[in-house]
Write a structure and sequence with these properties.
109 residues; alpha+beta
């Protein structure tokens, strides 16, 4: 079951204090903060990447794989009611994840 665009819009609205963007990937969505993937939206649920910072903030939260074969992430859909905690976790993930590598220019032959 793919995530509905309405769910993504709702989650982006809830996270409005942050400059979070969503990008569709394989029928699901990745959430970006400062160009870094910090969370996934799969099957209408929010999954936060487990990093040192997010583990410190969400250690008591449930974990589940966002899609079959994936490593477990924090299932954070219920944290949309606690935006301050979710915001802190997403900022922590962004601080822990390395910035994206610059794209190499295409060589024309």
């Amino acid at each position: 079951m793919a995530t509905s665009p309405a769910t993504v819009d709702h989650m982006l609205d809830a996270l409005a204090p942050l400059p979070v963007t969503a990008r569709k990937m394989f029928g699901e969505y990745a959430l970006y903060l400062d160009g870094r993937v910090v969370a996934l939206i799969c099957n209408d649920d929010l999954f936060v990447k487990p990093t040192v910072g997010s583990v410190a903030l969400l250690a008591d939260g449930p974990m589940a794989p966002p899609y079959p074969g994936a490593k477990p992430h924090y299932l954070a859909t219920d944290l949309l009611d606690d935006v301050d905690r979710l915001t802190a976790a997403l900022l922590a993930v962004a601080a822990d994840v390395p910035p994206p590598k610059p794209k190499k220019p295409k060589v024309r032959t």
